[in-house]
Design brief:
11 strands; 2 helices; 5-stranded antiparallel sheet; RmlC-like_jellyroll; 46% strand; single chain; Jelly Rolls; 6-stranded antiparallel sheet; 140 residues
Length: 140
């Protein structure tokens, strides 16, 4: 089990979709129930449309604002907004604003945690190949 209290900026670093992310809560911390990542989505950046075939996802906007697409619905999500993303659903996030947005993302079960841990060691192209092994599918 890791530290029970992490300070600002503490946690395991990784890279997903070209973005620096920090694991804030591990699957070990939750007896295998979920894990959580925190990251900043800079202005003009996006997480492209994709599907998680094995995990439920919760997205919480800590700071800033984003455009959040889940299925066919797209909404502006301001600081404090929270959104559930069912497994098997196409989703994407984008920051069209002028300021960075800080997001907390929770995955259950924590199957993708291993992908996150391995992501620091691979190129973006290798990440896409590796992601398929974890049930994560890019969507055009």
């Amino acid at each position: 089990m890791s530290k029970s209290l992490l300070g600002p900026g503490e946690g395991m670093a990784g890279h997903v979709f070209g973005l620096d992310m920090t694991r804030r809560v591990s699957g070990d911390d939750t007896n295998g129930a979920y894990f959580a990542l925190e990251f900043e989505l800079p202005p003009g950046e996006e997480i492209p449309p994709h599907i998680h075939h094995n995990e439920e996802e919760i997205l919480y906007v800590i700071d800033g604002e984003i455009e959040s697409r889940v299925g066919e619905e797209t909404h502006k999500a301001l600081a404090g907004a929270c959104r559930a993303i069912p497994r098997g659903t196409v989703h994407a996030q984008a920051n069209h604003g002028r300021d960075p947005a800080t997001l907390l993302v929770i995955f259950s079960p924590p199957h993708l945690e291993e992908l996150f841990e391995r992501s620091a060691e691979v190129t973006p192209e290798e990440f896409q190949e590796l992601a398929a092994d974890y049930g994560m599918e890019p969507v055009e």
